[in-house]
Amino acid sequence: MIKKNPLVSHRIRKINGSFAWIPHSFLRKGFWASLSHHELLLYLFLALVTDRHGLSYYSFDRICSLLDIGTDEYILARNGLIDKDLIAFDGYLYQVLTLPEIVASRQSSPLESKEEMTLRDPATISRIIGKAIGR
Question: Count of CB atoms within 10 A of residue 106's CB?
């Protein structure tokens, strides 16, 4: 059995009030809207696979395979979540953190191509998630 210790011990998630895998404030406070599609997909995946301390040791190749994303998309999503202070990562172990007080803003630009619509249009997120979980 692998022994895991929290990376940021003062930021261990707790089940408080209305909690459904992800705190409702994730949506209410604008975290959902601040993430790209791949960031959102990776965050939701990590939230589902972590233990009670928010820890997971899934490998990047397994994550890429399960989410059907390439290595570059994974790295950009992972680094984006780290930059937005939503996860910690030590090269092997992930920790989904408590939500920070302030939502990190994302630079938004117009969607100019079909590829950008596929990757960044919020209306496509249910399709992406459905594909990732095999629906």
Answer: 13
